[in-house]
Amino acid sequence: MLQELFSPGVQHALDIVGIFVFAISGALLAVRKNFDVFGIAVLAEVTALGGGLFRDLVIGAVPPAAFTDLGYFLTPLLAAALVFFLHPQVERTQFAVNVFDAAGLGLFCVTGTTKAYDYGLGLTASATLGLATAVGGGVLRDIIANEVPSLVRWDRDLYAVPAIVGATIVALCIRFDTLNGFTTAFAIVTAFVLRLLAMHYHWRAPRAWNRRSSAQEPAEEKATAQ
């Protein structure tokens, strides 16, 4: 199905771009955590390839693309080297990195869903793996960096929801036999725009209704520390 929507060259180029920007985000977190060069490379690789690797193992696409295409493996290392030597400059372009990251989120949630369906999964399972493809690397990145994954933190702008929307659009298009280049692009752009809006307006998912939690708000934590 992917081959019907994109030529192999276009598909590969889009994958490489998405892998690169995801790797940048992983390498930047490694620098902030004061990791050494090996740690920077590991976090870049895990962030960029973790979601796709998980998807391929689940659907039985082995060996995974990350191990059969040298470009997929080397691209995160290039991103890690860039951050290692130029991280102050990269930090200053954080907004641009976030924009490309949002584009990668939209792309991977769509390609992940279609690839899972191609391997015989149902629509719900395919959409779920589309979500996992888009956010899985970031979850692994945060776990390795000893942080609560951004995916489940209430004080982070919506990240999974745009991916869920994009994957759901693709699943519905498959269900009603309307998946084509236009609807695929629509799903990618929808997830991309939703993520950008969430970052701009700081949209966040609601927490439990009438919650009674001992967890402190960030402002309360600062006040307590003072």
UniProtKB/TrEMBL annotation:
Its main location: membrane. Pfam families: Gly_transporter (PF03458). Keywords: Cell membrane, Membrane, Transmembrane, Transmembrane helix. It is a multi-pass membrane protein. Residues 13-87, 99-173 form the Glycine transporter domain. Belongs to the UPF0126 family. The chain crosses the membrane at residues 12-31, 38-58, 70-88, 95-113, 119-137, 158-176, 182-203. It comes from Streptomyces lasiicapitis. It is found in: Cell membrane. InterPro entries: Gly_transporter. Signal peptide: none annotated. This is UPF0126 membrane protein.
